[in-house]
Amino acid sequence: MGDLVDSMLDLMRRLPPTHVEENVAALVGICPDYADDLLGSVDQPLKLRTDRSTGREYLACDYNRDGESYRSPWSNEYEPPLDDGTVPTPRLRQLEIKANEAFDTYREMYYEGGVSSVFLWDLDDGGFAGVVLLKKALVPTTPTEPSGSWDSIHVFEAAERGRQAHYKLTSTIMLQLVTRSNSDSPPDNGPFKKAAPEPVGSGSGARKEGEVSLSGSMTRQTEQDWPLQNQESHIANTGRMIEEMEIKMRNLLQEVYFGKTRDVVFDLRSIESLERARRQRELQKELVGFIKR
Amino acid sequence: MDASERIQAASKFLLQSPPGEINDVLNDVRNIISDDASLQEGVLPALQEYNLAQFIVADVPGSGHQSIVSDAAQLEGEEGEERFWDPRSRTSFRFDHLSLEASDSKPVEADNESEPFRAALESSTLTYLAAHFHDGVASVFSKTGSSTEFTIQIVANKYNPSNFWAGRWRSEYIVDLAGKKVAGKILVNVHYYEQGNVQLETKHTISFPLPPTISVSSPNTSNSKILALIEDEEGKFQTALNDVYHEMSEKTFKGLRRALPLTRQKLDWDKVMGYKLGAELSASNKGVFGGNGS
């Protein structure tokens, strides 16, 4: 029934990203047997939680979830507490602690705010896997200022091969931007004519209210080999890969969000009169023909 | 979930379909629900609601043009029969909400009182449509029982599945001659889905007063004036949208994540590790990496 999961993923690729959580919940309700497949393959916005023992914020997703509880990367504890919650082996936990420190530095350098979390887990074949999470949200200070949120989810697998390590990285970035506007554009009277009656005519007394929302996610994958000197090399290696990937994807997001979607709007409707443009083209053709003669 | 809840969930999915992708969504939903018999009946109301809200267009039988299937186009048919009205061809038709085909065309008698103004408004709207929309369809309806209220609807679609994008522009204006005002809305949806799922959604409502010179008795001058006002508003909307794009890109996007750190250089990961590693080395296990000559 891989077919069914494919259909669910195709559906999620089409429905509005702003409703991903409720749509995933609906799909889980329809096909409870496939809940794990679905929750493991559809990225959802990261949730902010606070570590009870350190007071520090961390990110929650399917990778640090056990039942209803989430593990904090800072204290290694589950909230709500679990007696038998899955935790990494002591050796991997040491690496996880260092990875969290390193990516916290990375976060500060690029995001200048926000929250990061890294979670590692052992794989059956002797290697390990991990997820690096980054989230930042901008809360508008005025009603018409845009709001925005950025969620990065980098999942990787590491396999050691002697003095080399092979990495598989899947990166998803979710980006949401919303602008609301509201204008009761009164006639342009200037400050001293407040009491002037509103003239009825073109462009005056118009009331407008609007919302522009750009939201979605993009996913990319890469596989690379890097030299391995010691355990810490894994952090620098995945660090470089993730940094490179985020730079590449940030460019891609910029192009798609602010280039491609805008082009489609202007392809639907042209501000300039198409008739005028057509006449101009014809005139140009005539001129070219005239010069050629 | 019981059967009716599943149909309800399926209907919700359909209503969220991006432009031009209702059949893809329907195929996915069919696979997921895997109960074609109950699905076919059950989702029909959702398909109808989607088509009316999204200004889906129909090829009007025998007319050579398309018209918009919407609430404003719905006629009160006999015995619950659903028919849609195309004032331009003065016909009505039946519409299949699954195949999107129009059939069973019948003549509709125009209302003598409102028709001259409606026809002039339609003519101005079609001129405006050709001037600004690449693949647009427009319909102009008069309100039953009123000779002073008209609805202009415009839709433009671009579907490009091979390049993974689709877009839809809808606008609607209720022209109220008695109240001397126009209430309108502009809705734009764009879907880009190459290795991702990015959607633009805009909702914009406008209302503006009509100049006093506009009246039913001067259909031609009044109508070109009304369309000039609409042209102005839609142009302003598009310019404002451009500004929003600029602000989101220059302020919000940059404020979320820098292109490079303040140093204008990528991170030196050995150094990032070095800080912590160095601190740890001096604290506990000297000699593991730094030990020489022991």
Automatic annotation (TrEMBL), chain A:
It holds the Pfam family F_actin_cap_B. It is found in: Cytoplasm, Cytoskeleton. Residues 180-229 are annotated as: Disordered. It comes from Jaapia argillacea MUCL 33604. One of its GO terms (biological process) is barbed-end actin filament capping. This is F-actin-capping protein subunit beta. F-actin-capping proteins bind in a Ca(2+)-independent manner to the fast growing ends of actin filaments (barbed end) thereby blocking the exchange of subunits at these ends. Unlike other capping proteins (such as gelsolin and severin), these proteins do not sever actin filaments. InterPro entries: CapZ_alpha/beta, CapZ_alpha/beta_2, CAPZB, CAPZB_N, F-actin_capping_bsu_CS.
From TrEMBL, chain B:
The keyword Transferase does not apply. GO terms for cellular component: actin cortical patch; F-actin capping protein complex. It comes from the Eukaryota. GO terms for molecular function: actin filament binding. The keyword 4Fe-4S does not apply. Keywords: Actin capping, Actin-binding. GO terms for biological process: actin cytoskeleton organization; barbed-end actin filament capping. InterPro entries: CapZ_alpha, CapZ_alpha/beta, CapZ_alpha/beta_2, CapZ_alpha_1. Heterodimer of an alpha and a beta subunit. Belongs to the F-actin-capping protein alpha subunit family. F-actin-capping proteins bind in a Ca(2+)-independent manner to the fast growing ends of actin filaments (barbed end) thereby blocking the exchange of subunits at these ends. Unlike other capping proteins (such as gelsolin and severin), these proteins do not sever actin filaments. This is F-actin-capping protein subunit alpha. It comes from Jaapia argillacea MUCL 33604.
